[in-house]
Design a protein that fits this description.
heterodimer; A: about 180 residues; mainly alpha; Fumarate Reductase Iron-sulfur Protein, Chain B, domain 2; 2 domains; 10 helices; about 0% strand; B: about 280 residues; alpha/beta; Glutathione S-transferase Yfyf (Class Pi), Chain A, domain 2; Rossmann fold; four-stranded parallel beta sheet; 12 helices; 8 strands; about 10% strand; globular
């Protein structure tokens, strides 16, 4: 475990709240996808406190946070666990240290790109873009897509805002933001 | 009654949420005023990418709601609801973020003076639906499923883990409600789409728990929850429970025909359980 003097997470709002963590594990026990995480939330907070920043920068944990907020409402020390997961994801994305073999960052990118292009999300187009990187996942979904189509629930045409350029502009204006996560 | 409505991206292709919401609101004289030119709220993605961007995407609606002259913004999607609320909370707490968001909006020709109250469609129908006067659906047992993001993290509408508002709603409009412990257990949300095998157990646990407690139908309040619970059953040999929207059940209670409520769009058919004398 490598140690680092400068904390890359120091700008995260309410990060200091993890000093209150009593390591009870209620967060990890409440997490629906803890099994898929390399360090469930309790452990991840311990690593940050110990200064094991490299370990945290390369952790898959924030990418398996489903935003169910179960941990956050149950935490006896009122640590905003889910909000911290979002912020960690933002720092890790900006640092470019997310684990290479993870599917979720590709899904998020496809989703975000669809918003940037059209202002709205069209699920089939997000899946198509994601499928370019993960063709097997996309193929596996075809039988389901056919069932959806039969029930009039598959939209292949992009939903769009009236002026997609305005949303692209919103993306540009926030692109180089060095804001605090 | 007039409400300012934010449908969100999944509304139109969901299993009859649009049809049933529109039909029920028509019947109850609720005028749905869709935010013109609404955009995606950013869902659970954008706050992990860029906080200012996430806030700006949400705040664009707040400025639009203001130009429409409404105080409240109503949505039927849990992810939209939680995301817009998160943005509203941050804009209220963080002046610096508010200023930066305002600059982005002004660049788009918009201005934010006030932040609307974000409400779920369930709250609106809770107030607007009349009490049942018929026994038609008294023998139809329903399990209420909330998903994660209606009561969490804010817990102001109801309790975070064990809410009851949907049970009260269903009981009041004439259905038999079955108690169960899976009401806010997570279905896997967007992870279930690409981590199918890993998330299958999450949906199975919810469906089996609700079936074990004697419900014949599930009532949901969110497009992604509906989709996950519905599609998980077609690749499983477990119990088959139609996964409806609370608006579809409200429509039935109001005497509307299943066809008007988009009930033919479910993957697990509701025909058998909804055929009532």
């Amino acid at each position: 475990m490598s140690q680092n003097d400068t904390n890359p997470f120091s700008t995260i709002a309410h990060l200091e709240s993890i000093n209150q963590c009593i390591q009870c594990g209620t967060c990890s026990g409440s997490c629906p996808l803890a099994d898929l995480m390399d360090h469930a939330p309790r452990e991840l907070f311990a690593l940050i406190r110990e200064g094991a920043y490299e370990e945290v920068l390369h952790s898959n944990t924030p990418w398996f946070c489903v935003s169910c907020y179960a941990c956050m409402v149950r935490c006896p020390r009122e640590i905003p666990v889910t909000d911290l997961m979002y912020a960690l994801k933002e720092v890790i994305t900006k640092q470019g240290t997310a684990p290479q073999n993870l599917k979720m960052p590709d899904m998020y990118q496809a989703f975000s790109r669809n918003i940037k292009d059209t202002g709205k999300v069209t699920e089939s187009l997000v899946m198509a873009r994601y499928g370019m990187k993960h063709p097997m996942d996309a193929l596996k979904n075809i039988p389901l897509a056919i069932k959806m189509q039969m029930r009039g629930r598959l939209e292949l045409k992009a939903q769009k805002v009236a002026d997609p350029k305005s949303i692209a502009r919103l993306f540009e204006l926030t692109e180089t933001s060095k804001d605090k996560p | 009654m007039k409400i300012c409505f934010y449908p969100g991206c999944s509304f139109a292709t969901s299993a009859g949420y649009k049809e049933s919401t529109e039909a029920v609101c028509r019947k109850l004289n609720i005028e749905l005023n869709e935010i013109p030119d609404w955009n995606c709220c950013g869902a659970t993605v954008m706050f992990g990418e860029n906080k200012l961007r996430a806030t700006a995407l949400a705040a664009r609606h707040f400025a639009l709601v203001q130009t429409m002259g409404f105080e409240d913004l109503v949505t039927g999607c849990n992810a939209c609801y939680a995301t817009l609320r998160k943005a509203a909370r941050l804009l209220t707490e963080d002046q610096e973020l508010f200023q930066k968001t305002q600059e982005v909006l002004q660049n788009l020709g918009l201005k934010l003076d006030r932040i609307p109250k974000i409400r779920h469609l369930l709250e609106v129908l809770m107030e607007a639906m009349p009490d049942s006067t018929s026994d038609r659906y008294k023998t139809l047992s329903v399990g209420a499923y909330y998903g994660c993001q209606l009561t969490r993290p804010d817990q102001d509408l109801d309790k975070g883990d064990y809410p009851e508002i949907l049970e009260h709603f269903l009981d009041r409009i004439g259905f038999s409600v079955k108690e169960h412990s899976a009401r806010t257990q997570c279905c896997g949300a967007s992870h279930a789409v690409i981590y199918k095998n890993e998330c299958q157990g999450l949906s199975q646990r919810i469906i089996r728990e609700i079936a074990n407690k004697g419900a014949e139908v599930i009532a949901t309040i969110c497009p992604l929850c509906q989709f996950n619970l519905d599609q998980a059953q077609i690749q499983d040999n477990g119990p088959r429970l139609p996964v409806t929207y609370f608006t579809q059940l409200a429509g039935l209670a109001l005497g509307l025909a299943p066809a008007e409520l988009g009930l033919n769009k479910l993957l697990v058919s509701a025909d058998k359980v909804l055929t009532r004398p």
